[in-house]
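Ticket #533: bound-state structure for adenosine monophosphate.
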Amino acid sequence: MNTTTDHLDVPAVTFDNRFVRELPRDPESSARRRQVLHAAWSAAAPTPVAAPRLLAHAPEVAALVGFSDTFVQSPAFANVFGGNALLPGMEPYAACYGGHQFGNWAGQLGDGRAITLGEVLNAHGERWELQLKGAGPTPYSRTADGRAVLRSSIREFLCSEAMHHLGVPTTRALSVVTTGDAVVRDMFYNGNAQEEPGAIVCRVAPSFIRFGNFEIFTARNDLALLAQLVDFTIARDYPHLASIADEMQRRATWYAEVCERTARLIVHWMRVGFVHGVMNTDNMSILGLTIDYGPYGWIDDFNPNWTPNTTDAQNRRYRFGQQPAIAQWNVVRLADAIAPLFADESLLQAGIDRFSAIYVAEYEAMNAAKFGFATRGEEERDCIREAFRLMYDAEIDYTNFFRALGNVPDVLPDVPATELLGDVFYDPARRDAHAEALHSWFSRWHARVLTHGRDFAQRQAAMHAVNPWFVLRNYVAQQAIDAATQGDASLVHTLLTVLRTPYTEQPQHAALVARRPEWARHKAGCSMLSCSS
Ligand code: AMP
Ligand code: MG
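RESOLUTION: The complex was predicted; output attached.
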């Protein structure tokens, strides 16, 4: 069983485990799968693994938590973050939550393979919850094993950090530890189960509370616990609202802020071309963070209908272009969940309205910034609409198109637009079919952008600050996974370096930003992913 590492040079981190201290616990402490009633969490110890070994870590996150490099490199670290030991002060638990999955109420879900170790209070007074993903079964594991495979752990680790450095709100990732144990997965649910290497990510966030944590109590008509969780969340995760004296007003203001944060999050996803893939309400963070990296992806060619998730291939509920509408549907589910606490539902309607108002305004401002427009009127809006149509029709790479646009000088060289844009086209036939329309759009955009009072250097800096040079394309992540599976983690480490400055061109790593090569168009992991992780 678990041992503490008291003989080791363990950093003096302070744990302050409010979730387990302030919210009711499940009286049973075994990992027997069950419905957990009248409780917000169950005690759940990580299940030890054969041979924990640190594959990669994010030094910035270690610093946030207060871990020295010596500790991170020590065997004690791999032991703790592989699930074989606890640090003094850790109180591991799994949270109880429910959720709407693909539009339907799914009942109790809960942390089936996530185990929170504790809440660290760092030297700056910040709270960081440490959570293992893949650390073995809990009461919420249902029929599954509580484990995670190396491929999905590398994907979660890299993408969490990539998103952070892109300026997108997200949970962070401290480490990936390989377990030395095999995990059996049927990657495409087609009867081809295989053994894969197991791994555990330690993710880090101020809070892992999801919309589903509230929904489950309402579904069970446990309204006292619902109120307790709402007030706990405000006190711990929204302390700036705690001073609002009127209880209902405080809760309504909190809900509106959740709506606003969620709207801003989706604007970021649309800006960088991120598709979450499984926007179930149990995967919606109460802090408006990107959470639960599963079959996510980045759009290569601009296509609002694209989803990376094969499990959703039929209905494409969670496709790129539908993310704003789904996020709104999800905040309405949260409103439904907390409505019993309100005498008057118009208090909640204000939050839902805030979602729409913020989304519309921020989305428009974001697009104007991507195109280099300092102000916007009807001409700018129309120019942007036409650009998206052309990007879709001519199958143009989203990320590289905007980067190319930012490099266009004040005096247009006398060459066709297709040449100025460079290697952003996936299909020469579609490029040629739209070459003329593109050229005339290009001249129109260029003429307009010059009227906005910025010189080339100013415009380029402004555009490059919102249009990333590097995003973690699926085919690139997959190459890092393939190599790591063969024992070579060097590309994981290279990517971890490159993703730290995603808005800065890094010519020595130009190969990592090339548009998706043809071989990757339909390859597993590159364009198709399932929930089987
Ligand atoms: P997800 O689709 O990954 O957000 O997961 C939905 C639910 O299934 C959550 O309650 C997870 O904890 C649970 N789950 C997913 N994978 C596993 C697994 N390998 N073992 C146990 N529970 C899992
Ligand atoms: Mg989830």
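RESOLUTION NOTES: The pocket of adenosine monophosphate (ligand 1) is lined by residues 109-113, 140-141, 144-147, 278, 282-283, 292, 294, 531 (CB under 6 Å).
TICKET STATUS: resolved
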